[in-house]
Every structure is written in C-alpha cells, then in structure tokens.
Amino acid sequence: MAKLTVSDLDVKSKKVLIRVDFNVPIKGGVIGNDNRMVAALPTINYVTENGGKAILFSHLGRIKTEDDKKELSLRPVAEHLAELLNKPVTFVPETRGAQLEDAINNMEDGDVLVVENTRFEDLDGKKESGNDPELGKYWASLGDVFVNDAFGTAHRSHASNVGISEAMKAEGKKAAAGYLLEKEIQFLGNAVDDPKTPFVAILGGAKVSDKIGVINHLLGKADKVIVGGGMTYTFYAAKGIKIGNSLVEEDKIELAKEIMEKAGDKLVLPVDNVVATEFNNDAPSQVAEGDIPDGYMALDIGPKSVQLFKDTLADAKTVVWNGPMGVFEMSNFAKGTLEVGKFLGTLSDATTIVGGGDSTAAVQQLGVADKLTHISTGGGASLEYLEGKTLPGIAAVSDK
C-alpha cells in the first residue's frame, strides 16, 4: 500500500508538525556532520514555500540526567538550520507548555520553529522513548497535519513519531511521509523486494548476532551475500579455519554453520586477511591466507579478498552495502572498506545503496557518494528494513 507523502498535502496556512532526524554529532556547541540536516531540507522547504508553518521535532542523544540537558540542547542545531535555510528559525527551549504554544500561535505562513530535544521528556519516566500516549496526543494538538521525515528513528516507536501519527489519525487528521522517508522506502524497499538481478548484498561489522536477521532474510533474496568485518571470524571458526586472536562469538559458531549450510555458494567470505599482533593502528601487520597465525588477529580483508569481492560485484545490477570490511577507524586497516567503496562508485548501471555509519563515512571520504544511487540516513532502521521487518514509524503514516 502506498503511503501518503508531503506532496499530497495542502499545507497553506497550516501548522505542519515535522519529525526530522537532527541527531547530529555536537561537541561544545559545534556540529560535526550536518548530513542529516541537509537531507531534511527538501521537506522543510516544500512546507514553507507552499505557505505552511514548519514546526520541527527531533531528538538528540540520550537524556538520563539533568546535566545531559546542558550538552544536548537543540539550540545550536536550530542556529545552524537558520544558516542552511538562509532564513530566521525560532527556537523554543521547551518541549511543552505556554511558551511553546504561544510561539506556535504567533507563527506566520512560511515560518520555521524548532522545539527543544524531544528526549528531554525522558527524564520523567521515558515519556518520549516509551511512546507515552498523552505526550503524543499533546504534541499532535499543536498542529493541523504531521509529516514524518525521520528515517533514522523509523524503527523505534516514540511519542514524536508513532505517538503523533496515531493521535493525528485518531482525530481524522493526516500523517504523511516526508521526501527523505519516501526516498528510503522507495530505494530500500525496491532493493529488497523487487531488485534488478544479479542482486549482491555486502555485510560487514563486528558481530554476527547484529546481522543474523539480515543475513537470513537476504539469503532468500540476493544472488550473493558478501561477508566482511569482524563477523567473518565466527564463520571461519565454524569452518574450522584457525582464527588466532581474532574477534569471535563462540555462542554463534553453531548458528554460523547453519547459515553456511543453508547458503551454499551464495555466501562469499574473505580468502585472506590483514593481521597484526595487537589492536593498534601502528602494530606491524602482514597478510595471512587461510589460517590466521597464533598470536595474531585479523583487522581487515586482504588484497585477494578485495579482488574476489570486486569480481562478485562486477555484473551486479543491485547492491546493498551495510558495515565496514575491517577496523575502518584505524587508517592502516581501512583499505578493504575503502576499496569496496571505490569499486561501488564504478558500477554505473547498477542501483547502489549504502547504509550504516562506517560505510557511509567511507563513501564520503572517498568522494564517491555522488556516484551511488542512494545513501541511507538510518543505521539501525536500514538494517531492520533489510531484515524485512515492519518499521513502526513508517507503518504509522497514513496510507494513500
């Protein structure tokens, strides 16, 4: 069923509540990376250019103590947003009450307002992240229509996404998807449910346990599933390959065996690894084929694996990549991840989709981001989508 989108709404003179994902890295009031903010601009601009009043909700970090509030106010985010939009943005340092209500009632058509961090509501009994129905209802009462554009939290049932949607719909008002959410549904959904073949998935990261659901789901859909990163060595252990001091989930070895039996030749594992004696960027390293020597740990895929992965990807028409091939945060062990990213940028007639923090960082670092079809803004959300799960934030949007 197609979802209602922001383009389907008449927003003129309406108070449009927009859930954005402005959960950006901030240190000392300075924003480290504003990609998520930039990604939300088309939806905000659509509302303001069509005479709507844009009222933005977002969370920022986790709020457990009063002290967290000082560090995690959305004020610097609102100030940065004003620069991005090149227009004034009103910031309200409250999540409810007269000050917020007055500020909203005083808005002119085309104005933008940012509400304080929705997770400030978590201090008093996790009202935001526990999806407190009263809070969702209160926030919904502040607007005429709701637009969810926060894919990064679509896998969570919070008051600011699901709560507002449900309360709006109960009142006969509309809840729509913003452009970013619409794009994520379109690309990730099509990739998994209706891919052009051959369809190759690349899964990296440390733990098999984080990706079991995704591996199992994609083995039923993809032509090949390439595995890299720390979870490789649990598969190695299951195959009887020696892994030295490499990362392993002992309690998942049996599961890895089952996955390999089910997968047959669909599962592609590294054939060589860059190994070192310690988890340190400056540790002397060497390439090991097959068994990993005692006293060594694998920290990246080796050159033959890079070639094997490129060969596997060469004729792909759809590629989904989530997770690094090695310890990407250490420059000496980032090569495998960067080589894969660079190669994806050359697949001009394939649909290439990247999701997850490290993979996204890799393609941006390489400058190939614009050569890829889609870069997902959600880590956990894109993973659950790839697992075939229904995401509550998307389910709560009105159907057309």
From TrEMBL:
<comment type="pathway">
    <text>Carbohydrate degradation; glycolysis; pyruvate from D-glyceraldehyde 3-phosphate: step 2/5.</text>
</comment>
<feature type="binding site">
    <location>
        <begin position="59"/>
        <end position="62"/>
    </location>
    <ligand>
        <name>substrate</name>
    </ligand>
</feature>
<keyword id="KW-0418">Kinase</keyword>
<dbReference type="GO" id="GO:0006096">
    <property type="term" value="P:glycolytic process"/>
</dbReference>
<feature type="binding site">
    <location>
        <position position="119"/>
    </location>
    <ligand>
        <name>(2R)-3-phosphoglycerate</name>
    </ligand>
</feature>
<comment type="subunit">
    <text>Monomer.</text>
</comment>
<dbReference type="InterPro" id="IPR001576">
    <property type="entry name" value="Phosphoglycerate_kinase"/>
</dbReference>
<keyword id="KW-0963">Cytoplasm</keyword>
<dbReference type="GO" id="GO:0005829">
    <property type="term" value="C:cytosol"/>
</dbReference>
<feature type="binding site">
    <location>
        <begin position="21"/>
        <end position="23"/>
    </location>
    <ligand>
        <name>substrate</name>
    </ligand>
</feature>
<feature type="binding site">
    <location>
        <position position="36"/>
    </location>
    <ligand>
        <name>(2R)-3-phosphoglycerate</name>
    </ligand>
</feature>
<feature type="binding site">
    <location>
        <begin position="356"/>
        <end position="359"/>
    </location>
    <ligand>
        <name>ATP</name>
    </ligand>
</feature>
<dbReference type="Pfam" id="PF00162">
    <property type="entry name" value="PGK"/>
</dbReference>
<comment type="similarity">
    <text>Belongs to the phosphoglycerate kinase family.</text>
</comment>
<dbReference type="GO" id="GO:0043531">
    <property type="term" value="F:ADP binding"/>
</dbReference>
<feature type="binding site">
    <location>
        <position position="211"/>
    </location>
    <ligand>
        <name>ATP</name>
    </ligand>
</feature>
<feature type="binding site">
    <location>
        <position position="156"/>
    </location>
    <ligand>
        <name>(2R)-3-phosphoglycerate</name>
    </ligand>
</feature>
<keyword id="KW-0808">Transferase</keyword>
<feature type="binding site">
    <location>
        <position position="156"/>
    </location>
    <ligand>
        <name>substrate</name>
    </ligand>
</feature>
<dbReference type="InterPro" id="IPR015824">
    <property type="entry name" value="Phosphoglycerate_kinase_N"/>
</dbReference>
<feature type="binding site">
    <location>
        <position position="36"/>
    </location>
    <ligand>
        <name>substrate</name>
    </ligand>
</feature>
<keyword id="KW-0547">Nucleotide-binding</keyword>
<keyword id="KW-0067">ATP-binding</keyword>
<feature type="binding site">
    <location>
        <position position="329"/>
    </location>
    <ligand>
        <name>ATP</name>
    </ligand>
</feature>
<keyword id="KW-0324">Glycolysis</keyword>
<dbReference type="GO" id="GO:0005524">
    <property type="term" value="F:ATP binding"/>
</dbReference>
<dbReference type="GO" id="GO:0009986">
    <property type="term" value="C:cell surface"/>
</dbReference>
<protein>
    <recommendedName>
        <fullName>Phosphoglycerate kinase</fullName>
        <ecNumber>2.7.2.3</ecNumber>
    </recommendedName>
</protein>
<dbReference type="InterPro" id="IPR015911">
    <property type="entry name" value="Phosphoglycerate_kinase_CS"/>
</dbReference>
<dbReference type="GO" id="GO:0004618">
    <property type="term" value="F:phosphoglycerate kinase activity"/>
</dbReference>
<feature type="binding site">
    <location>
        <position position="119"/>
    </location>
    <ligand>
        <name>substrate</name>
    </ligand>
</feature>
<dbReference type="InterPro" id="IPR036043">
    <property type="entry name" value="Phosphoglycerate_kinase_sf"/>
</dbReference>
<dbReference type="GO" id="GO:0006094">
    <property type="term" value="P:gluconeogenesis"/>
</dbReference>
